[in-house]
């Protein structure tokens, strides 16, 4: 009977599920499903996974040893995607690597559907993370914390943590992922960390510093002053800055800017 390992949509959960699936069914027919996205099938046995950091560490170490660091990086990014079948794709790609003479070249084996899916998911997550490194806007709160909200498709916070930590090492800042309800928190001169299950205080994040309000107004005035009506091209603007990113950007939150009325 096919074994289906059910886990949460986190790196620890998925790594733990892959660990158990590999340990118990590396040569058999098995699958990894995300809790809340399970599609029940006939002749399958569903097993809830015990999620531990030890399992995640062992799986990551095994992947680095036998598949290489590049494959480990691609698998990690793929498991951050919003594709509910990502666990199955990674597990079957790992099984496919056993058929190769050099398992470290597994990500070159794009003729295999599962390997191609892992590669595509990894590239999609990396691209989205790169976009957010450019589009994230921080707002200074009255308590001095720099705050930003984003709505990504994938779980990109761990991909952008080092970037903003390097840019603002002496600042206290927080990036809240509204899609996955998780925060990336950085304390000055410390390493960033993820905080799950705690939502930012709605009143606190709207209580902006006086300087922040002044700078936001100056920024909007700058947008208006450099715009040329005759050269307005909303289609080109959307190509450079898609609409789905604008809801969390201060310069696009007033005066109908969400519809692309600011001219560039």
UniProtKB/TrEMBL annotation:
It comes from the Bacteria. InterPro entries: DNA_repair_put, DUF4130. Pfam families: DUF4130. Residues 85-251 form the DUF4130 domain. This is TIGR03915 family putative DNA repair protein. It comes from Ruminococcus turbiniformis.
